[in-house]
Design goal:
The strands form two sheets. This protein has a nine-stranded antiparallel sheet. A two-stranded antiparallel sheet has the order 1-6. The radius of gyration is 20 Å and the shape is globular. It is about 40% helix and about 30% strand. It has helices spanning about 5-15, 20-25, 30-45, 75-85, 110-120, 145-155, 165-170, 175-185, 220-230, 255-265, 290-305; strands spanning about 45-55, 60-70, 90-95, 100-105, 125-135, 190-195, 205-210, 235-240, 245-255, 270-280, 285. It contains eleven helices and eleven strands. It has three domains: about 5-45, Winged helix-like DNA-binding domain superfamily/Winged helix DNA-binding domain (Arc Repressor Mutant, subunit A, Orthogonal Bundle), CATH 1.10.10; about 50-195 and about 280-305, Alpha-Beta Plaits (2-Layer Sandwich); about 205-280, 2-Layer Sandwich (Alpha-Beta Plaits). A hairpin with a 4-residue loop joins strand 8 and strand 9 (about 245-255). The N and C termini lie far apart (about 45 Å). By secondary structure, it is an alpha+beta fold.
């Protein structure tokens, strides 16, 4: 696992449809070399799946992050699945000592966030939760045409499907397919990416939860600093709190001792107040309302054709 592999992982997390050639041009390799690297990472279980989903705006929801502390009496797999079976939750990351990192969406408004908090507290072994709405592009809400839904149906089955194959299946002109896809992605109607399984391969993936002096700097400035300061280890930004000066950042390292070095350098930054580190056990990924609604819509479209 080298810096190019890490770059490929981030590229696919951000855009499942990025081509082999685009990544080849970016990293100075051949398209076949990129393809072979991806095959190896899939083989060791680094990637779970490519996906497409509606944006938050399309389902009238907002993103959240929640940190849950338990008394350690729960069965981890059972608890994770009970959380993941809720339509609001897409990621459950168990950590050490009964701590969980949970991501998802909630219906717009304070009531939706309050109901989500009550859901987390309903488990008898949950001792404490920290629940925050996060800052994220919400996208655009539109009424989709039949042609758009037909194209999305093909992408739902295979997010990396070639345009030529969609043409063969649908009879829609390639230029129209390309224009429609670019418009749906660029305007934030849908999002596409790749779900990864941290710690499944050679990398140790961890989350740093960072509190900073909001009067002196911003999360964006600190994330840009991290990108330059840790070019080989900083994977991507996590979740920026909408109500306090804190955010999370995902790092990937090869050796545990690197975690200490990163922690020390973060804490030496004049505007970072404190950091907390979470090393995931195997992460659990689920389908939230954005995927559920898209599947319902394209299934209905398929039944009409």
């Amino acid at each position: 696992m080298d810096s190019i592999d890490k770059g490929i992982i981030v590229d696919l997390m951000m855009n499942a449809r990025i081509s082999y050639q685009e990544m080849a041009n970016k990293y100075g390799l051949s398209a076949n070399a990129i393809k072979n690297r991806m095959k190896k990472m899939f083989a060791v279980g680094m990637f779970k799946e490519h996906y497409i989903a509606f944006s938050n705006a399309m389902v009238d929801c907002e993103p959240f992050v929640c940190y849950i502390d338990t008394d350690c009496t729960e069965d981890i797999d059972t608890f994770a699945d009970k959380l993941g079976n809720d339509f609001r939750i897409n990621t459950v990351g168990p950590s050490s000592r009964g701590r969980y990192f949970v991501l998802g969406i909630y219906p717009n408004g304070s009531t939706g966030l309050s109901e989500l908090g009550n859901f987390f507290r309903s488990f008898p072994f949950v001792k404490n939760i920290e629940l925050f709405p996060t800052i994220s592009p919400n996208g655009t809400k539109v009424q989709l045409s039949q042609t758009e839904l037909i194209i999305l149906k093909n992408l739902f089955e295979n997010p990396r499907i070639p345009i030529s194959e969609i043409v063969r299946r649908s009879g829609i002109a390639p230029g129209m397919i390309t224009d429609i896809l670019n418009n749906l992605i660029n305007t934030g109607v849908i999002e596409t990416g790749t779900r990864i399984l941290p710690n499944a391969g050679d990398l140790i993936s961890l989350i740093f939860r960072i509190y900073f002096d909001g009067k002196s700097t911003s999360a964006k400035e600190l994330l840009n600093w991290m990108k330059n300061e840790f070019p080989d280890d900083f994977a991507m930004p996590g979740n920026i709190s909408a109500i306090q000066s804190s955010f999370s950042a995902i790092f990937s390292v090869v050796k545990l001792k690197e975690i200490h070095n990163i922690t020390q350098r973060l804490r030496q930054h004049p505007h970072i107040i404190s950091t907390t580190t979470f090393i995931w056990e195997p992460i659990r990924l689920y389908s939230d309302l954005r995927t559920i609604r898209l599947k319902e819509m394209i299934t209905e479209t398929g039944s009409k054709n």
